Amino acid sequence: MKTAHPSRTARSPRTAHSSRTDAHSSRTDAHSSRTxxxxxxxxxxxxxxxxxLRVDVxxxxxVVLLALAALAASVLLIGTGDFPISSSDVxxxxxxxxxxxxxxxxxxxxxxxVLVGLxxxxxxxxxxxxFQSVARNxxxxxxxxGLSQGASAGALVVIVLSxxxxxxxxxxxxxxxxxxxxxxxxxAWKQGVHGYRLVxxxxxxxxxxxxxxxxxxxxxxxxxxxxxxxWMSGSxxxxxxxxxxxxxxxxxxxxPLVLANARGLRMLEMGDDTAYAxxxxxxxxxxxxxxxxxxxxxxxxxxAGPVSFVALTAPQLARRLTRSPGPNLxxxxxxxxxxxxxxxxxSQRVFGADQLPVGVVTGALGGVYLLWLLVTERRKGxx
Length: 383
Hints:
By secondary structure, this protein is mainly alpha-helical. The protein contains 17 helices and two strands. Helix 5 packs parallel to helix 11 (241-260). It is globular and about 60 Å long. Mean pLDDT is 80; it is low at 1-40.
């Protein structure tokens, strides 16, 4: 009778242990591969009406945090001034439960200025995001394209030639911004408006309008020239409810219109041919969004003067925070509001009694940001 060889009927303890170890390691690798899968950055949310919406979790979180930062900075800004007020007293005054003197200072004197700052920053951030997306160029902002200078030219014409009041200056800035926007659009038109042509034409228009503004200042008398220079620096001093309501109404009308065409704007970033293939009316959407951006920029300039670099930097900072492709309209809006309010707070607190116009602070911060961006891009070998 033959007996089987031990090596054929049973495994040695070392072999069994190694096989169990290999099985355990394979299970561990499988588990780690399951746990190391990338997280979903977007979730589907179903509304009560049965609609399903795709929500980017990171972008939503950034929007909430930026909105909270803007509100917190607004409370601090309201409490800043010759008569300082604590944040708790500011909140009580805002709901009508503060002392009579504090209620008057907070609700009648300082709240309109802060609301103008929030609305102007939101308009500039949204307008900058629209222009950069339409032009498909990070330099395609109202500062570079000449829209802010065009609105300034309209205001300077009113100040220098007719010595008009605040209402006339506002209307002149709106008219100047609209005329400049139409000029850029028609000069850049050649079987459609393309991004590089829009930026080049805008830079040329900006240079021409800047020269016109300098000529108007040199031809004005001393009082009107001083008034014009103060206005062109960009400031929130002396702003009241007469500047709040037009901005609020304009934002309430244009924001739903812009968001309704956000999908078409996203398709335009992939090129006109792709957008046409996906059923987007390219020129209609482009003209509508550019007109909205021109109105937003002109209204912001009319309310606070040409506040520089907010429209340029807010969309870029918002995109870096969300890490999301596309125009990032709502994050840019919130970023612009937060930037302008923080800059206004810094202009009152950082420099002591020598308060600077908010446009000077945003210009300095924007210049530093651009230098940092150029250095980082050069290190990456992109420029």
